[in-house]
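User: I need a structural model of Serine aminopeptidase S33 domain-containing protein from Panicum virgatum for a docking pre-check later this week. Nothing fancy, just the predicted structure tokens so I can convert them on my end. Input:
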Amino acid sequence: MPAAANAAASAVAPPRSGRPLLARAPFRRAPAAHGWEPRRPRAVASSSASASPPPGAAAARRRGLREYVEAAGEMARRKDGGPPRWFSPLECGGAGGERVPGAPTLLYLPGIDGVGLGLIRHHEKLAKMFELWCLHIPVEDRTSFEGLVELVETTVKSESSRASDRPVYLVGESVGACIALAVAVRNPDIDLVLILVNPGTSFHKSQLQTLSAFLNFVPEPFHLTTPQLLTFLTGNFMKMPSTVVGRGFSHEEDNTLSEITSSLLASHIFLVDILTKESIIWKLQILKKAASFVNSRLHAVKAQTLVLASGNDELLPSSQEAEKLRGAIEKCRTRLFRDNGHKILLEAEFDLATTIKGAGYYRRSKKTDFVSDYLPATPDELQQVINRDRILNFITDPVLLSTLPDGKIVRGLAGLPREGPAVLVGYHMLLGLELGPMVTGVLSSTGVHIRGLAHPFMFDKNSEQIMPDSAHFDVYRIMGAVPVTGANFYKLLADKEFVLLYPGGAREALHRKGEEYKFIIPFGVVGEDDICDVSVILLPTTMLLPKFEITMRISFPGKRL
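Assistant: Understood. Predicted structure tokens for Serine aminopeptidase S33 domain-containing protein:
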């Protein structure tokens, strides 16, 4: 538990002296409104202040830009001059013991809005993987870039010393990504993992620089009608009604369009509250300074870094910036989301937890351990993998067969053991296309999770760049594949896992004409196990050496001696 978890100060009014503290100050739904209402930390909260968590994962998936606008607007209307502070959302309290053991700390650093609710769609899922804390910067706060870096740096050092055996995650969005990079530059010896979402390092090449140049001449609130902000706003909302596309209009669609209209109106009201002209000018100045500071020091970033870039970012040239950062930062990988906009964290088709897992960036120790750090695929992730192979499944209509103990071959997996350890050794068909339907089919029908030993090529940073999509191999990591090594093989068996091994490897999957079924030759042996039994004789403890009695049972046709 981070420091001051049981402090009496609320998340909205922390002490103004001393170092910034992590305070467990969840938010709950206000009964009379759709905003978010702060309450006192758990340790000192009265029963009247307590509230049950928001709806489950299904409801969390429905959250998006509209819910963010409502919640952020509720927070913004509380006039507060600062300073910035941390809060942990109510659903991230780890109730029910669902958080994995040894979960690392994740600190979310918001974008220009500064509210700290950018992960609203991901709170519940991330809370099972991390100790999640979000930074809230009040609308009227004017903490400098240096001050924000020092605040985050102090918290990072505190969390690192509290749990020195695990990393500290910094998830930064636009200007928050610049702050995360600055902290990494100043602390090269701290084990950090940076997740940079549409980083603001490209400010000098963006529309925002143009906006900052003439915003002083635009009266308030007409600054909200600038092309940049309108494109950002309408672009994100029009991504929400995906169910309307490709269908005729009905009462349901009419309701959806009505919701969009009301959401747009609510968002304008929100922008008036939280993106005041003075606030935007101040934060653009911070972003300009942050980008300049970080861009001149990218070579000094030693932290493990993952850049998430949107192909349709309305404010920043994020896809090009991702490539620049990948070349400048030693331990950097990128993931490009071609159809997403600047506020990708609020869009329905994006899942941050799945992205982190798929990229191989989730770890609970100094180095990634693909065996012990693995988190099983969620039902949603499994369904995504099944959908990925739906065309192949439709064309081939795969059938799974198994052999019962009496040797009878049956349709289905009744003959497959339900407990490991077990080793499944197979032959790769052309391109290894059988792998997906087999692993998902076994898991869906029996609950048996097969862990594959995969070629190291699939885990290498450089190999990602020669693929059409850098996330091409992410699905294998989500389903539990590990690099094929003797150590990983042993650890999987020690954990009583089902291990899948293809001895022919990539060469077998890419076999030439006439080479099919040439590498693996199945064989069996009838021998010692069929003619003798081995029994152990229990001896007094004074005997130092064990003795074994071998009883020979020699079988002949029709007779037994």
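Before docking, keep this in mind: Residues 102 and 385 are 28 Å apart (CA to CA).
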